[in-house]
Design brief:
This is Zinc-type alcohol dehydrogenase-like protein. With about 325 residues, the chain is an alpha/beta fold. It has helices at about 45-50, 120, 125-140, 160-170, 185-190, 205-210, 225-235, 270, 280-295, 310-320; strands at about 1-5, 20, 30-40, 60, 65-75, 85-90, 100-105, 110, 150-155, 175-180, 195-200, 215-220, 240-245, 260-265, 300-305, 330.
Length: about 325
């Protein structure tokens, strides 16, 4: 099968930062689906892996989002059958989705929304799982609750922020404040449903005071190291903070006087460690799929870059690296 990957860690501008090559068909395990990939999306994790980790042996296939059609099932598969249309975010310990075919554990796969094409559907899984787990597990919010409390989403215009705003508004009573710093990103987070927008390049403390809001929950999705002191200042005592980025150091003892709780969200943890509740991701993706088909959630895809090729994938990586990407960039399958 055809696949796109990389051999050497480095910048996307390197001549062979991404290459197309012929790969063996992936083996299908007992719980696996073999999926013909019809659409993919690009996430920050694609860039981080490509920039910072040289493959130990040969060429590594990237890609952590896909939508496609099941062509084969493993012996213990019970949730899907051949011909089903699916979407999922994959497993960081296995080869990725930038290929014609991909093997994935059925327990982290959801039914593709019927109302979306494959490329657009591929824009949802990783960010939806991340946002769902962050909101309901890392921050500890419960569905139907949160009235009178505020959630601050730092970096609201990215892929995770775009779906997190929507989940918080549709499934909880939280007041949602999102940060954005440009006219296009401000417009985007308003479209996603944010109640208020503040600029993270200015004093968030002062802006929240002017709104007479003190968040109990903070989702720090980008630039945590630079915003951490402000987060400690602006949050309520006994508040909750969740991160998805990788600050090298954080002085979390600064949160002790307010008795704050801190948590990291990493959506690959369940698949990486084969947790007892791994099938939770199948269930939440099905919920997201239903919400999309019922028009409760709107698309977070901002750009379809066309058919998956080395050139279009390089473009998607470059846009992700720029730090100016809004929502999700997606591509059609590699055929």
């Amino acid at each position: 099968m055809k696949a796109i990957g990389y051999k050497q860690a480095g910048p996307i501008t390197a001549p062979e930062s991404l290459i197309q090559f012929d790969a063996e068909m992936p083996p299908v395990g007992a719980h696996d689906l073999l999926v013909e990939v019809r659409g993919i999306s690009v996430n920050p994790v694609d860039v981080k892996v490509r920039e910072g980790k040289t493959p130990e042996d040969g060429t590594q296939i990237l890609g952590y989002d896909a939508a496609g059609v099941v062509t084969e099932v493993g012996d213990d598969v019970r949730l899907f059958q051949v011909g089903d249309e699916v979407f999922y975010a994959g497993d960081i310990t296995r080869p990725g989705t930038n290929a014609q075919f991909h093997a994935v554990d059925e327990r982290i796969v959801g039914r593709k929304p019927k109302s979306l094409g494959f490329a657009e559907a591929a824009g949802f899984p990783l960010t939806s799982i991340t946002a769902w787990e962050l909101l309901f597990e890392s921050l500890g919010v419960k569905e139907g609750e949160g009235d009178g409390e505020t959630l601050l989403v730092v970096g609201g215009a990215g892929g995770v922020g775009s779906i997190l705003i929507q989940l918080a508004k549709k499934l909880t009573g939280l007041n949602v404040v999102a940060t954005a710093s440009r006219p296009d990103t401000i417009q985007w987070v308003q479209k996603m449903g944010a109640d208020h927008v503040i600029n993270h390049r200015q004093s968030m403390v002062d802006q929240l005071k002017s709104l007479d809001l003190t968040p109990r929950y903070v989702a720090s999705l980008t630039g945590t190291a630079g915003h951490f002191a402000e987060i400690i200042d602006l949050i309520k005592p006994r508040g909750h903070v969740a991160f998805i980025d990788d600050p090298e150091t954080l002085d979390i003892k600064a949160g002790k006087p307010k008795a704050l709780s801190f948590a990291w969200e990493f959506m690959f943890a369940r698949s990486m460690f084969q947790t007892d509740d791994i099938q939770y991701q199948h269930e939440l993706l099905n919920r997201v799929s239903e919400m999309i088909d019922d028009a409760v959630l709107i698309s977070t895809v901002n750009n379809n870059l066309g058919k998956l090729t080395v050139e279009t994938l390089k473009d998607a990586h470059a846009q992700q690296e720029s730090g100016r990407a809004i929502g999700k960039n997606v591509l059609d399958g590699l055929n």
